[in-house]
Amino acid sequence: MTDDPSDLLPAVAILGAGSMGGAILRGLVRSGLAPAVTVTNRTAAKAGELAGLEGVTSLALEEDPHANAVAVASADVVLVGVKPAMVPGLLREIAPHVREGAIVVSLAAGVPLATFTGILGPRVVVLRSMPNTPALVGKAVTGLAADAAASAAHIAVVRRLFETVGAVVEVPESQIDALSTISGSGPAYVFLLVEQLAEAAVRKGFSEAEAWMLAGQTFIGAAALMEATGEDPRELRRQVTSPKGTTERAVGVLQDADLAGVFERATDAALARARELAAG
After folding, report:
1. Phi/psi of residue 60, each to 5°?
2. What is the mean pLDDT of residues 136-150?
3. Nearest 5 degrees, angle CA 129-CA 131-CA 136?
4. pTM of the model
């Protein structure tokens, strides 16, 4: 919590407080920086899950079809967290109700700034964001791209909002889709590696529970070591890899399998799909 009113964020609305919007909401509540947040969801059941959070007004569209309009009418910062295909319709719905000068922030992958500005017009400032799921535990990486109308002060407000759930990097919009293939999709790559390492452990005779603990805790510990030391991961890898030892042999197999090329092809595939989404 902050005791300095100047540190507080203006009134926030989150339209579509699903997994990502909900993670950001909880980060805001934990930080104490947003004393007034209004969130919307389709169902009363989902809205009810968020209603008890401090400073949060949680609205359900099934109870009030105008909930999105109500939410934006009282907000200076609006986060759009609905699925990408739903964004244009939502923007047309809220356009008459958004406050002049409001900051509208997209959480939707593949939806360009031009879609927002084309529907909402010059009355608002628009940014695109690309957070990732570690926002749930305050360890997100969020990419931010702003339209030309955004001032340094606008960007600072949005940056402060996303810093409640992790680190923030500012990029031009031309880089936001590429960023999504690294940090946005990245947690899935890590979980897949944990999964494969655990399966290798099972094949070596460990129980499934032991295998998941060995693989999962190894990734958790390695990430914590990298964070705590601030060392270049290449140096940390060298510290584990004794010359002519077992780790060196294993790393050699991974390198022979062209792991770098695999990640290049994977991120290229994700980028191609992001561009397909952007093209409609």
Report:
1. -115, 130
2. 94
3. 145
4. 0.90
Is residue 103 within 8 A of residue 116, CB to CB? The reply is no
- Spans of all domains in the chain: 5-179, 186-278
pLDDT digit string, tens, across residues 68-96: 999 999 999 999 999 988 999 999 999 99
DSSP output for 33-92: --S-EEEEESSHHHHHHHTTSTTEEEEETTT-TTHHHHHHHT-SEEEE-S-GGGHHHHHH
Single-letter amino acid, residue 102: A
Which of these, 161, 137, 144, lies nearest to 33 by C-alpha position?
A: 161
The answer to whether the annotation marks 20 as part of a ligand binding site is yes
Q: 213 a known binding residue? A: no
Residue 118 annotated as part of some ligand binding site? no
Q: Is 81 annotated as a binding residue?
A: no
Is it the case that residue 215 has pLDDT exceeding 60?
Answer: yes
16 carries a ligand binding annotation: yes
CATH of segment(s) 5-179: 3.40.50.720
Which CATH architecture is the domain 186-278 placed in?
Orthogonal Bundle (1.10)
pLDDT band at 1 (very low <50, low <70, confident <90, very high): very low
Is 223 a known ligand-binding residue?
no
- Give 118-127's long-range contacts (Cβ < 8 A, gap of 24+): 119/88, 119/91, 119/92, 119/95, 120/91, 120/95, 121/95, 122/149, 123/98, 124/98, 124/99, 124/100, 125/101, 125/149, 125/150, 125/151, 125/154, 126/150, 127/103, 127/154, 127/155, 127/158
43-65 pLDDT, tens digit each = 999 999 998 899 999 999 999 99
Check if 5-179 and 186-278 are the same fold: no
* Residue 68 marked ligand-binding: yes
pLDDT for the residue 110: 85
